[in-house]
Amino acid sequence: MENKLGRNLPDKLMNELHFKPFETTKIGNPVFQRTAPKVQVQNGHDKLKDDLKQVVKKNVKDGMTISFHHHLRNGDYIFNLVMKAIMDLGIKDLTLAPSSLTGVMNDMVIKAIKNGTVTNITTSGMRGSLGDEVSHGILKNPVIFRSHGGRARAIENGDIKIDVAFLGVPNSDRCGNANGMEGPAAFGSLGYALMDAAYANKVVLLTDNVVDYPNTPASIRQTQVDDVVKVDQVGDPNKIGSGATRFTKDPKDLTIARAVNQVIVNSQYFKDGFSFQTGSGGAALAVTRYLRQAMLDNHLHASFGLGGITKPMVDLLEEGLVDKLMDVQDFDKAAADSMKNNKNQQEIDASWYADPDNKGSMVAQLDIAVLSALEIDTDFNVNVLTGSDGVIRGAVGGHQDAATAKMTIICAPLVRGRIPTVVDHINTAVTPGQSIDVLVTEFGIAINPNRPDLIKQFQDVPSLHVYTIEELAKKAESIVGKEEPLQYTDKTVGLVEYRDGTIIDSIRQVKD
Questions:
Q1: Which CATH number is 46-239's, of 3.30.1330.30, 3.40.190.10, 3.40.50.2000, 3.40.1080.10?
Q2: Rounded distance, CA 418 to CA 235, Å?
């Protein structure tokens, strides 16, 4: 079976799981029936517990689907705590459905897969040892990779049915009113966890900071919560900004960021009241700093900034250069701290952010999106999930979602070491080329032929060196040579959804 990108999909799995192949980014205006969670009525009882294992024993059974959020990233302590309790109780055959998986979770997930505790995973991404093990076939069934907006859609429409959500929060009262803004482990927006709180059949909050009732403002409400478990420590918020969200000092990244800024400034979208989102890659994060000066020089301000919020975006808000920050997650502690102090930094859930099947998400209002890539091919299709060796080492994240902006810019080096970024054919298609408008590298830019308006705008800008994407691919090949085709087995280890639930690609097991 092939989809409209020409990606081969496994017939048997597609039929067994009732998936449809990707066709187009134009989703249209269908009508959907939302799902609803089961509710066990509680009237007037305190929900505070001090024995996590007893709570797990009461709520989790073989074959269930459990979920977590990843707002604390590598500072998260809750995931491993809960999974250890589950394994100690001998619970088996679980589906793991976190918003994403971070490096601190890897060893525990690998152990849970090997002993049969986890047999299915749906997530946004995975890296490191877990990605390597899954790529080599450790998991019984293929991982279903979804974007943040796609996960929200799948939860709301019932494709992901969460039995129990375990949600770490930096504060809660005895009845389950909680937010992400106060306490030693404060991490800001609870944007991803809000989906789980609203739709899981059972919601268990874990906190190290039990506060007086009623706790306000309440992002998660007592009407949604079954149990509150007091733990020693939820996590370390100082580790939120590690890994993929670190700020770059690399000269190549900064060169790319300056070029991205020139693309933005010379586009039709750089006008008073524009809106934007920047991704979590080094160059993408640096763009915000250059954009600030351009806004000052041109006496412009932005109506809103979206997505993962960073300190440079908070600085724009505090300087009056952006009116609102719509915050689904915080990429550093400074952004998390800002949420409790600034009324114009609005917490939003993942559905409001990017669900394509609701009555209007924020990404549909974006003028400019700046995103990164592991690979991009000559049809402008983007891979942010697998490396040049075929191993899973990234995340779909909000990439597909934000790429619906009026102008989507991919910033990436032409090569990374001896590995080309611009190629004839990418390993894994995550975001379709029809969503991508401009590629920016340190050598120059390429504009999607589908955007003759942008070609006209940029072709005479002295600071922008415009090439065709085929020319950039040949340039990359001249530097690092032509790569040998990867070798795979017949086993499918992952299916990649487009944000509408269709399958945009499959990932096969890497051959040893």
A1: 3.40.1080.10
A2: 37
